[in-house]
Amino acid sequence: MKVQRPRGGTGSVSSVGRVSAAPAVKPAQSVDSVSGISTPQDIASVGGIPEAEFTPKVRAAIEQLMKEVQVVRQELDQAKKRVDYLEKLADQDVLTPVLNRRAFVRELDRMMAYSERYEVPGSVIYIDVNGMKEINDGLGHDAGDEAIKHVASSLLNHVRSSDIVGRLGGDEFGVILLQAAPEIATEKAQLLADEVSRHPFDYEGKSVNVHVSHGVHSFQGSDANAALKAADLAMYEQKKARQEQE
Hints:
By secondary structure, this protein is of the alpha+beta class. Helix content is 48%, strand content 19%.
């Protein structure tokens, strides 16, 4: 059987069935209006500036701007380090590597507020160095300074990283123990006192023993100055009892 195809047609008919040719699909391309040739239309840009506008003057201006931004960043970094240093300097005791009284009281206030809010126990230990007058009179005030440094170092070396040590003035120190019940704080205070007296310090070839008295006050809220006063009173009572025994 002979099948006659229409001229210019895209379909065909047979005795078996009809077959339709699929339309041709071409990718979308841009066409040059003059030549009719498809060309890609990529446009490069730097920082939002088209490449065509990125002239040598523009490039130089941007490079200069980037240098200035880098300088500002360096100055800000140096200023931040300076502020951090000054803040640390303002909080640190002038003689020892512990907090001064102002910073210690601030941290005690903060710890007491935390203790009250989350209902966790906390304690503050008040420590006084015994016999400082004898050390100063017998060996000089430099030896007295070394005794203060010795006590501060001993306290720092035997507390947790979460505990806070401060010098409250002269020969008096404070230690804040968060999450420490009264009995635990009392044991810790005695341990610290034992560590101070167990290891004398050397001064110009002489071994100098240092002893401390301590008092403990447990808190959960209240006022920092009131807590320190209570711990100080407990320390005084201990010192008085020791002197009576001697």
